[in-house]
Amino acid sequence: MVRRQLFQIFVLSLVLFGLAFTLAPWFAFRALKANARDHDVAGLAQMVDARAVRASLRDQVQAPARPDLPANESPAAEIWRDPMGAMRRALEPFTEPLEPLAPMPARLEPYLAPEGLYDLTRGYMPGTAPPEPPTPEGLAGLTAALSEPLPTLRFWGIDRVRFAVHPPERPEAITVFTFQRTALFQWMLVHVRLPDGDGA
Prior knowledge:
Layout: H1 2-37, H2 41-47, H3 50-58, H4 78-81, H5 83-91, H6 109-112, H7 114-121, H8 139-146, E1 152-156, E2 160-165, E3 175-181, E4 187-193
Helix pairs in contact: 1-2, 1-7
C-alpha cells in the first residue's frame, strides 16, 4: 500500500514537472507583457537580453532618411558631407560589446522602452497600439487577465521557443518573439522579428 502511494506521488510529481517545464515559456511571455505594461524596468532587465534584441532589430529598423540629402545623390557621398556621422554609423555594429558605454541608436529606443515592448507584445509597432480599456477590479479583473489572447506557438525546443502575435485587425502583420532558456524554468527574450515592411 505504501509503495503504491509512493509510486502515485512519483508519477504525479513527474506530471507536474512536465507541465511546469512545458508551460514555462508561456508564463515568460505573459510576465514580459505584464512587466512592460507596468513599466517594471527591473523585471524587464531580468527577462530581456537587451544587446541581443537590439542586434536583432538593427537591420530591421531603418534609419530615417536625411532631408538634406538630395534624392539623386548617392548615400556614399555622405562621407564627404558628414565624415564623423558616417564613421559613427559604420562603427555602430561594433559598439555592442561596449554596452552600456555605447549609447543606443535613437531609432531603436522606442522598441526597447517598456511602452514599446508592450505594444510589440500586443502585435503593434511602438506608438501605434490603440489604448486599452481600464482593467476591472476584483474577480472581473482576474477573469479579464486570464482571458487575454495567448500568443501563437511557432516553434518549441528544449532551449528555444518562438511565439507569434498580430493585431486583431491585421492577421498578416506577425511579430515573432524568440525566447531562450537560461535556467530550468527561466526564459529570456533574445530576438524580435518585426512584420515585413513595418521596420522602415
